[in-house]
């Protein structure tokens, strides 16, 4: 006969303890090594390339893809089913667009570039990969910020060294030009005070890239360890780059990350934002000329002819003019590499979504964005999604630039992370 007292007095069965096998531990360690090596390549080999035909090709792309293939072959990485399906869809749409342009009369003088198409699809393929096992998020982000702190230190030393006559802002003359990717990039940009140049982190391709990576370091530090030394390094690196794009990325982080993580982060964000405000105020008092130069950079968007206006305004002028001339570009684009060769009555630049949209069409752009969106993210990754996507999409034409594309893919899609066991949930 059923006796409820017996059931109530019976203790619940003990939950089996989760154990991590040596093989899983080895795979986790391999994932962290992959993270370290890939980021080292992206950060310290940005300026190096080889000639591929008439154009230089970044060595970061082939090396990154080789690392991905190695990880796939050794079980460190696996193919993510959802993103692999999206990528195959991208390839199909790109081939359909290429066939359309090959059989249709040309509207613009420039012909589509097969090399541009192959390079774009090749480096984008890294987004199909994923860590084979979940990795501790604290260990993952610690690896990233350790390397970014080195870049910050190098950038600070580079900026200070110019005041004692030591200038190393470009590698031309030290390394044969055939191995460099520096042509066409703004490595040596005056601050606007005497002959002082903006810091580019020594190995990074431009001061704007320096500012964006420093913003990323600050965001990660706010979410994780919150160490005073790292805050100082990243803030100094951000200030000495004299670029507004890093501040825009950082502002988007403080605005949107609280929605993803919750009230506890909101308090941390407010304190961090206030600290940055105090640092800016102190810099204004201590070095008014430098503060004025930084302020001018932040206000460039509304001034035609400035880099800020070129980066954030002219791409949309270009998109409007192209669609008015060729409405079918909404679906098929105008061909790989064509958007940068157009002759227009104004100087223009292209950011990532505008370039992808104009060259491949709206369906391709939506699928491309889905490649970044389709992932299982831990809470801290989710907090970084909006600012890192803003960095990737609107602060430069990074769809063909592996040194920025690969780190963004790594953090937002490739990395499978789990919350640190000893840490309380944020928020």
Textual characterization of the structure:
Residues 4-10 and 422-427 have low confidence and may be disordered. The protein has a two-stranded antiparallel sheet. Strand 1 (49-52) and strand 2 form a beta hairpin. Helix 2 (22-44) runs parallel beside helix 6. The protein is built from 18 helices and six strands. It has one domain. It has helices at 4-9, 22-44, 60-73, 81-103, 114-124, 137-161, 207-223, 228-241, 244-261, 263-286, 288-298, 307-312, 314-325, 329-332, 352-360, 362-373, 379-394, 402-414; strands at residues 49-52, 55-58, 77-79, 129-131, 135-136, 417-418. With 427 residues, it is mainly alpha-helical.
Secondary structure: helix percent: 55-70%
Q: Radius of gyration, rounded? A: 24 Å
Query: Total number of helical segments?
Result: 18
| End-to-end separation | 49 Å
Q: What is the strand arrangement across the widest sheet?
A: 1-2
- What is the number of E strands? 6
Output the keywords.
427 residues; mainly alpha; 6 strands
What's the helix and strand layout?
Blueprint: H1 4-9, H2 22-44, E1 49-52, E2 55-58, H3 60-73, E3 77-79, H4 81-103, H5 114-124, E4 129-131, E5 135-136, H6 137-161, H7 207-223, H8 228-241, H9 244-261, H10 263-286, H11 288-298, H12 307-312, H13 314-325, H14 329-332, H15 352-360, H16 362-373, H17 379-394, H18 402-414, E6 417-418
Parallel strand pairs: 5-6
Antiparallel strand pairs: 1-2, 3-4
């Amino acid at each position: 006969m059923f006796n409820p007292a017996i059931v109530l007095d019976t203790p619940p069965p003990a939950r089996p303890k989760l154990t991590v096998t040596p093989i899983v531990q080895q795979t986790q360690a391999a994932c962290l090594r992959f993270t370290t090596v890939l980021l080292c390549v992206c950060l310290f080999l940005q300026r190096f390339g080889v000639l591929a035909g008439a154009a230089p090709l970044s060595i970061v792309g082939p090396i990154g893809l080789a690392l991905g293939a190695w990880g796939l072959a050794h079980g460190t990485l696996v193919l993510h089913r959802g993103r692999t399906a999206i990528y195959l869809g991208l390839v199909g749409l790109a081939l359909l667009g290429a066939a359309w342009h090959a059989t249709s009369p040309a509207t613009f003088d420039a012909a589509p570039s097969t090399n541009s198409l192959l390079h774009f699809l090749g480096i984008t393929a890294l987004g199909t990969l994923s860590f084979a096992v979940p990795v501790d998020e604290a260990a993952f982000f610690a690896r990233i910020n350790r390397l970014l702190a080195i870049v910050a230190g190098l950038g600070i030393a580079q900026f200070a060294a110019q005041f004692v006559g030591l200038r190393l802002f470009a590698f031309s003359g030290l390394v044969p030009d055939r191995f460099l990717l520096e042509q066409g990039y703004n490595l040596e940009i005056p601050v606007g005070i005497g002959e002082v140049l903006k810091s580019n982190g020594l190995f990074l391709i431009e001061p704007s890239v320096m500012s964006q990576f420093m913003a990323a370091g600050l965001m990660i530090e706010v979410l994780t360890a919150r160490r005073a030394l790292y805050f100082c390094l990243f803030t100094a690196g951000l200030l000495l780059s004299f670029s507004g794009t890093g501040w825009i990325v950082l502002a988007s982080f403080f605005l949107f990350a609280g929605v993803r993580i919750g009230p506890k982060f909101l308090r941390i964000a407010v304190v961090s934002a206030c600290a940055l405000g105090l640092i800016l105020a102190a810099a204004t008092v201590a070095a008014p000329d430098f503060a004025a130069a930084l302020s001018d950079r932040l206000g460039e968007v509304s001034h035609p002819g400035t880099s800020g206006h070129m980066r954030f305004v002219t791409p949309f002028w270009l998109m409007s003019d192209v669609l008015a001339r060729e409405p079918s570009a909404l679906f098929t684009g105008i061909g790989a590499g064509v958007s940068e060769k157009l002759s227009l009555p104004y100087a223009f630049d292209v950011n990532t979504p505008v370039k992808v949209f104009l060259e491949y069409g709206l369906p391709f752009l939506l699928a491309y964005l889905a490649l970044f969106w389709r992932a299982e993210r831990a809470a801290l990754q989710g907090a970084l999604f909006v600012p890192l996507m803003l960095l990737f999409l609107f602060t430069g034409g990074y769809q063909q630039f592996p040194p920025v594309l690969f780190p963004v893919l790594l953090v937002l899609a490739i990395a499978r992370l789990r919350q640190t066991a000893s840490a309380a949930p944020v928020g």
